[in-house]
Amino acid sequence: MYSLLFVTFIKSRCKLFYFLDIFHGAMSKNTLGIIKHQVRRLLRLV
After folding, report:
1. What domain of life is recorded for the organism (predicted)?
2. pTM higher than 0.70, yes or no?
3. CA pair distance 40, 46, nearest whole angstrom
4. Do 1 and 9 form a contact (C-beta atoms < 8 A)?
């Protein structure tokens, strides 16, 4: 019972770190910065 709870806890932690890794990867590629830049260019054109 206790070990099963521990395993599910580890799995949920792995999922969390997996999503954080994806988010960090997107940030490191500066995707948000590029999107903001594009939005600013569009606003300047309008």
Report:
1. Bacteria
2. no
3. 10
4. no
Spatial distance between the Cα atoms of 11 and 19, rounded to a whole number of angstroms? 13
**pLDDT, tens digit, 9 for 90 and up, residues 3-35:** 888 888 878 887 888 887 777 777 666 676 777
User: In angstroms, rounded to a whole number, what is the distance separating the alpha carbons of residues 42 and 18?
Assistant: 34
Say if CB 32 and CB 26 are below 8 A apart: yes
Amino acid at 11: K
How many CB atoms within 10 Å of residue 8?
10
Please state, in angstroms and rounded to a whole number, the distance separating the CA atoms of residues 14 and 5.
14
46 secondary structure, DSSP code: -
